[in-house]
Amino acid sequence: xxxxxxxxxxxxxxxxxxxxxxxxxxxxxxxxxxxxxxxxxxxxxxxxxxxxxxxxxxxxxxxxxxxxxxxxxxxxxxxxxxxxxxxxxxxxxxxxxxxxxxxxxxxxxxxxxxxxxxxxxxxxxxxxxxxxxxxxxxxxxxxxxxxxxxxxxxxxxxxxxxxxxxxxxxxxxxxxxxxxxxxxxxxxxxxxxxxxxxxxxxxxxxxxxxxxxxxxxxxxxxxxxxxxxxxxxxxxxxxxxxxxxxxxxxxxxxxxxxxxxxxxx
Amino acid sequence: xxxxxxxxxxxxxxxxxxxxxxxxxxxxxxxxxxxxxxxxxxxxxxxxxxxxxxxxxxxxxxxxxxxxxxxxxxxxxxxxxxxxxxxxxxxxxxxxxxxxxxxxxxxxxxxxxxxxxxxxxxxxxxxxxxxxxxxxxxxxxxxxxxxxxxxxxxxxxxxxxxxxxxxxxxxxxxxxxxxxxxxxx
Lengths: 265, 185
Known about the structure:
The complex is a heterodimer of chains A (about 260) and B (about 180). Chain A is an alpha+beta fold and about 260 residues long. Chain A contains six helices and eight strands; from the N terminus they run H-H-H-H-H-H-E-E-E-E-E-E-E-E. Chain A has a four-stranded antiparallel β-sheet. The longest helix of chain A is centred in the middle third of the chain and has 53 residues, at about 100-155. The N and C termini of chain A lie far apart (about 65 Å). Chain B has eight helices and no strands. Chain B has helices at about 5-10, 15-35, 40-55, 70-85, 110-125, 130-140, 145-150, 155-175. At the A-B interface, helix 1, helix 3, helix 4 and helix 6 of A face helix 2, helix 3, helix 4, helix 5 and helix 6 of B.
């Protein structure tokens, strides 16, 4: 086995971020000069991206979007973002003016300064308008989501299921599912016991005569509360019941772990 | 609008384009951050950092060298692990020379979800010892030496399990990542 074949496994581990610093340096040096190993490294990084993509989607809080757009607005005010910084040449050039031309210079400077101020003002107003538009879009999205939840809660076709625990000690974990085939799903749970490392809760659709289907993976907050929101599935389901189990991190295709709560229609 | 077009408009400093990328991929990035950090507030900060970073580095972003969701997901994982381990953000997480080649369209949410299910299923098919090691390593950022300490297993066992797991995943996802299962000679 030659040097490249011996390194191949370590290259995979390096790309996945599994090697310690002490092992990284010689490998990175080798990659600099070896096209074949570099290709393998690039491919392994693609595998790393796939592992990251394996995480079940989780909806961020609605205010995060507006805050991000606020940061962009602040960025625009920095030199990197295009805010005008006085240039040194402008100051030096002023020294060339003689006293005889001072009057003209003052007049010219006043005009230039006014024009500059107007341009700055225009730019500031333009940026402000853009930021407000972006903020408005964020608020609109937040509002849309709130409407979607209200719509789901108020619909007469929404299935409402109360999930309870049969065996857990008090305070008993409980949850409520609001499901509409076309509007999506909202699940709210409380009193969930803390999970061990490497575990997550998983919500399941239980269908009549069919295998349970995952409705999302979640972790409770420090108080044992959790909320799961899901858009409508591409293929509407007709659940007979919902259940929550403890599974290994990231969820599983079919339930295997202990059931925490269950509720039927 | 395609990811490529959104990036082009971000380079032109169009905030609505960044908002468009956010709307498309925020739930993916937040999920990765949440998975690593287990803390919604901390995950939210990482989420904002990643999209802010995209805004700043967009002019140097080379879509030909990697997919946008791949960059977002991997950058997020790096940044979240740095935070988890209270390290300064690694330069790698700021890299704009993206080498994450996912030669398929991830803009379709349904397709993305299908792929995620398949990766999850592949992880579940690994022997439990291998799967736990990969997850601890990937989502907690532990090196193989640290895994040996955490699990109490000899370093050699950790290395061989990880190698076996990576080999299985390579075999499973060669079609996606360009792997051909070739032996480097």
